[in-house]
Amino acid sequence: MRPPVEWPCEVPGAMKKANDIQSFHRAQRRLLLAIILVLLFISCRALAQQCQQDTDIDPATHTALVNSSQLYLQMAARGDVATLKQNTIASLAGNFGAIQQAVTANQANLVGPSTVQHTYLLDASAEAGTIAKAQFFCGVFGAYGNTATSASFQIPNLPAGKYALVIQNVTSSTGPFSFSLVLQDIAGQWRIAGLYVHASMVGGHDSQWFLTRARDFKQKDQLLASWLYYYMAWNLEAPVNFMSTLVLDHISSEMQGVHPPDLPGANPVTLTSPNGTYALTEIFPLVDNGKLDLIVKYSVPDLSDNVKLYRSNLDVMQALLAKHPELRDAFDQIVARAVAPDGSDFGTAMDMKDVKSPGMQ
User: Fold this and answer.
1) pLDDT per residue over 299-332, tens digit each?
2) Which DSSP state fits 7?
3) What residues does each domain of the chain span?
4) Fewest CB atoms within 10 A around its CB: which of 92, 116, 331, 344?
């Protein structure tokens, strides 16, 4: 171990040398003590937020989680949102609109044979209050993070308690979907603390297909299309957005390597056309009724003139596709949304084949 100070080239006297050696040893002991304290702190935090998965969970708890999740899936498939609401935690029952919309929109997607893919027990009951960033590590990790059998979760602002995540796969007439529930133990009953429905395929294509296409776009230096397809590959692979696995980590790593310079982020990106200049604020893919749409949002001062907004929406579509023609074959539709300062917007959707060249209306 290298000493924490620069040693002199010459030491004037044995006593001075002995004192310096003793000081060095004391510094080593202090450093060792500090490392031990840090490791103890990390260990205590790990013990405070524990995770078990699948067969590691005690049989009685595992059975209760599976039975509760399957019962809630049956309710969702029937569209029984009233009973689902009765079985949610109090804070979620008071703001149930998003879950009701998800269930209503996906009712047909949840009718069919189902299997439990994974069950995770996320125990933060030893904590107190609200955890700013709860972290759960399930399974055995390697030197570089996740392994093929591990998973990790990061959940912000999580109230202390005992939770579980149960992921089910549903094979419906509309295609394969994942139905994931975050459950919380409330007085011995597993109540709904979160509900997520995700398509596992789009247009008959799974995550691996989008990953392969993303790499093809990358080889052609078509970074925007590549990044958007990496996003789709990650989204189809991830049943919930606060989860990390080895596969998801690999997709994320590749995705960061193709981040396009003209993708809006913290700051808008300027798009120029023959008819004007636009400040793009968001570009992202969206699955709608089994089709893959490209959403483009840009800023406008107000929404008072619908005719003008419609024309500017068309202009944004044309200019973006002129700059990135590969997007025409990558998506079914393009949707341009003019967004006012208060967040309200005016949108126009068109099939890619119907979007003409710049300057044509």
Assistant:
1) 999 999 999 999 999 999 999 999 999 999 999 9
2) P
3) 19-48, 50-199, 207-256, 269-354
4) 344
Strand (E) or helix (H) holding 264: none
- Which of 158, 161, 71, 143 has its CA nearest to residue 114? 71
In the structure encoding, which two tokens stand for residue 43, read together? 């260990």
Residues in CB range of 246: below 8 A, 6 or more apart = 145, 146, 147, 148, 150
The contacts of residue 262 (CB under 8 Å, 6+ apart) are 224, 269, 271, 323
Q: How far apart (Å, rounded) are the C-alpha atoms in residues 140 and 26?
A: 36
What confidence tens digit (pLDDT) does each residue in 26-76 have?
555 555 444 443 344 344 444 457 999 999 999 999 999 999 999 999 999
List the one residue out of 74, 86, 85 whose CA is nearest residue 110: 74
Question: What residue type is assigned to position 135 of the chain?
Answer: Q
Order of strands, edge to edge, in the sheet holding 151-159?
130-138, 151-159, 243-244
Is the pTM for the entire model greater than 0.70?
Answer: yes
- Of the given ranges (4-8, 108-112, 163-167, 215-219), which has the lowest mean pLDDT? 4-8
Torsion of CA 234, 237, 238, 239, to 10 degrees: 150
Q: How distant, in Å, are the alpha carbons of 34, 110, 209 from that of 170?
A: 50, 6, 20
DSSP string of 57-118, one letter each residue: S-HHHHHHHHHHHHHHHHHHHHT-HHHHHHTB-HHHHTT-HHHHHHHHHHGGGG-S-EEEEE
